[in-house]
Amino acid sequence: MELMRASALPKPVRQANLASSRAGVIRALHYHERGQDDLFVCLQGMVRVVVLDRDTGETFTEDIGEDNPVALYVPGTKAHGYEALTDCLFCYFVTEEYDPDSPDEHGVPWNDPRVAHLWRTKTPILSARDAT
Question: What are phi and psi of 6, to 5 degrees?
Answer without folding.
Answer: -55, -35
